[in-house]
Amino acid sequence: MLDDAKSDAEGQAKNATNEIDIELSKLITISESIANDLNSGKLKDDKVNERLRATLEEHTKLWGVSVAYKPYEYNLSTRLYAPYFIRNGEIQRIQVEDKYDYTLPDGENGIRTNWYHQPLNEGPTWIEPYFGSAGQTFMVNYNVPFYRTNTSGEEVPTGVVGTEYSLDGIRGLVGSIDLGNTGYGFILTDKGTVVSHPIQEYLGKDVNDLQKTDETLRAITQNITHGKHKVIFNEFTGQNSWVFYELIPSTNWTLGVVFVEDEAFQETKTVERHLRILFGMSIIAFLFFLSILVSRAYKGSSDKLWLVAIIFSVLCISGMFFVWDIALENPPDENSQYVEVFDRVGLETTLHKHLASYEGQMIRVPTGVFLQSLEFTSANNVIVTGYIWQDYSDVMIDEISPGFIFPEAESVDIEEAYNENNTIGWYFRAVLRQSFDYSKYPFDREDVWIRLWHNDFHQNIILTPDLNSYDSLHPESKPGLENNFVLEGWDIQNTFFSYRSNSYNANFGVGDYQQEFPELYYNVGLKRNFISSIISNLIPLIVVSFLLFAVLMISTKNDKNIRLYGFSSAIVLSYCAALFFVLIVSHVSLREKLAATGVIYLEYIYFVIYFVLLGVSINSILLASCIENKFVDYKDNLIFKLLYWPIVLGMLLVITLINFY
3-class secondary structure for 209-263? Predict the structure, then answer.
C-alpha cells in the first residue's frame, strides 16, 4: 500500500518534470527560430522589432525577448542596437543600449552582461539566473548567437537572440502544478542557484548561502540524486516529507518535488483503515461459520445452538471494539476544506495557490494567538479567552486600522494589553458560536476554530500566522495554548493554523468589495473523553438490554413456570412501557444536551432497544394467546430466546460499521 503511494508520488514528480521541461524547451525553440531566420536573411534587421513583439504576444508566459547586435553590426552608423521587449503588465520596448553598455565585461559597474558574452563565446546556452538591470527583475535566459557571412565567406557571430522567463514566472509555473495543498516544487541550476521556490526571497540566490539559515532547505537540497527520493523530518512542524529529485533534460537543472507525508498518503491511510476493518469482519465471519461446523449446531441440539449464539454474540462485541479502536486510532480526515499551515514554505505555497490570479497589492499582517481558557457553555457555544497580537513592522500603520474581528462572536470583550516595537497585543474574552458534528458521539472528535478578520477586512489585507513567535508549530506540541490546559470531558490533541476560502452573498456595503483572500483560522483539535459518556449513557442501555432478556427468558407457556415466575402478558407490557418511558427521558435528555441536527451514533442503540422492547412485547402477547405459532411454540419460545443477543448485537455491529467504516 505504501509502495503504491510512493510510486504515485514519484509519477507526479516525473509528470511535473515533463510539464516544466516542455515549457522551458519553448525558450530554446523560440530563440533558435529567430536566430535561424536572422542567419538565413529571412528576418531582416528592420523587421526585428515586429518579430519580437509578435513573439511575446503569441507566447503569453514569456517575460521577455531580445536581440543584441555586436558593435556596428546593425548598421555602420549605430554602435550598439539591442531592442528588448518585456511583459510588464503590458508589452513594453526597452533599448538596452540606452540603459548600459552591454559589451562591457560581466560585472563591471555592477552590471551583468554575461547574457551577451557567454553565447558569443560558448554558443547556445542557458544563462545562470541574474537580476536584469533593464527589466528590473530576476530572470533566466536561453540565448543563441546568430551569424552573418563576411567577405571571406566565413560565418561570424553578429549578435545574440535571447528569450527569458522571470523567476517569478517560473515560480508560478511550478506552483501551478497540482502537488496537493502544501506540496511544492523547487528548481536548482547545476551551479546551485535557486530558480524556483515558494519563498520569493530565495529566487536567484545561492542555495549554499540559504542553507546556513534554513535547516529544512539544507536537508532537502543536500546529497541530491536524480531519480531517487528521501524522507526528511521537520522538527519545527513535526512532519515527515518525501522529496523526489528529477533532472530537467533541456536545462540540466534539478527539479525537487516535496510531498508532506500526512497529506500525500491520507488516501492511502483511508484505504488501509477500510482494509483493516474488512479483514477483521472476514475473521469474525470465518470464526462464526467454523463454530457452526465444529459444534454441529445444524443438528438442532439446544445446547449446541446456545453455544453458537453465545459465540456469535461475543464475536459481534469483539467486532465493535475492533472498529472503535480503529476509529479512535486513525479517524477519517474530515477537515479537507481546510489547508493547514505549519511553516513558511507551507504558508507561501498556500497563498500562492489561492492568490495566483490576484494582481493587486497585498498587505500581510502577521497575527499570533495564545489561548488561556476554553469552555463549552452549550452544544454550540464556546467561551475562549487569551491574547492576540499583530506585527506591523512591515506595514504603514497609518494606512489601516490595527485590530481584528471574530465573525462568529455572540459577545466579545477586547482590550489593548501592550504596544511595543510595532507589535500590538490585545486580551480578549469571546463567546463563539460554532456548529459541531456530533454524529459519532461518544467517539467524536471536534475542531474548535477561531476565525479571524482584520478590522479593515474590506481592504487588500490578509492575516498570516506569526510563525516567528512560536518555538515550534508541531501540532502535538500545542502551539499557542496555555500549559496545563484542562477542558472537562475532552482531551486536547493538537493546535494549528489553517486557511479556508469562504464566499459571501453580500458586499458589506462596499461597492467594489470582493472576497479574494482566504481567511485565517486558529484550530484546537479535541477528542472526547468517551469513558464518562459510556458510563452516563451506554451502561444504562446495557442494563435495560439485560432486563429485557431476563423478561424474555421467563416468558413461557408452561403452567408450572407461569406459577413460578408469575408470567403474564399484561405484566410484561406494563414492564416494557415503564422501560420505554425511562429510555425516552434519557434519549430526549441526550438530544437536548448535544443539540445535534442529525442522528448520532449512540441514538442508534436507543433505536435498537426500542425495537427490542416492541419485539419482547409482541412475543409476550403471542405466548399468552391461543393462536398456534410454530416459532413461539418450539421448545417453549426457544427460537426467540436464542436469537435475542445475536439480533441485538448483530444490528449494533452493522450500525457501527456504517458509521465508522
Answer: HHCCCCHHHHHHHCCCCCCCEEEEEECCCCEEEEEEEEEECCCCEEEEEEEEHHH
Judged against a pLDDT cut of 60, whether residue 77 lies above it is answered with: yes
- Beta carbons within 8 Å of 315's beta carbon, 6+ residues apart: 284, 287, 288
pLDDT mean over 558-585: 78
Same domain, 519 and 536: no
The whole-number pLDDT of residue 286 equals 94
**Cα–Cα distance measured from residue 403 to residue 418, given in angstroms and rounded to the nearest whole number:** 13
Instruction: Please count the CA atoms within 13 angstroms of the CA of 352 that sit on its side-chain side.
Output: 29
Q: What pLDDT is recorded for position 31?
A: 94
Does 505 or 491 have the greater pLDDT score?
Answer: 491
In what helix (H) or strand (E) does residue 86 lie, and over which residues does it extend? strand 83-88
Residue 310 lies in a domain: no
Q: Answer positive or negative: Cα dihedral of 431, 437, 443, 446.
A: negative
Answer whether residue 135 shows pLDDT above 60.
no
Same domain, 257 and 211: yes
Q: Which domain holds residue 53?
A: 1-264
| pLDDT tens digits along 352-383 | 887 766 666 788 999 999 999 999 988 889 99
Q: Is the pLDDT of residue 1 over 60?
A: no
Residue 87's pLDDT band, with cuts at 50, 70 and 90, is confident
pTM score of the predicted model: 0.81
Residues 229 and 376 in one domain: no
DSSP class per residue in 523-587: EEEEEE-HHHHIIIIIHHHHHHHHHHHHHHHH----HHHHHHHT--HHHHHHHHHHHHHHHHHHH
CATH of the domain at 430: 2.70.170.10
Question: DSSP H helical segments within 439-554, as ranges?
Answer: 530-533, 539-554
Q: Which triple of cell numbers denotes residue 116?
A: 551577451
**Are 412 and 465 members of one domain?**
yes
The verdict on 522 and 550 lying in the same domain is no
pLDDT attached to residue 538: 87
| Domain shared by 404 and 423, yes or no | yes
Grid cell listed for 165: 522567463
| Chain center to CA of 195 | 26
8 Å CB contact between 515 and 504: yes
Q: Which of 264, 298, 320 is the last residue in one of the domains?
A: 264
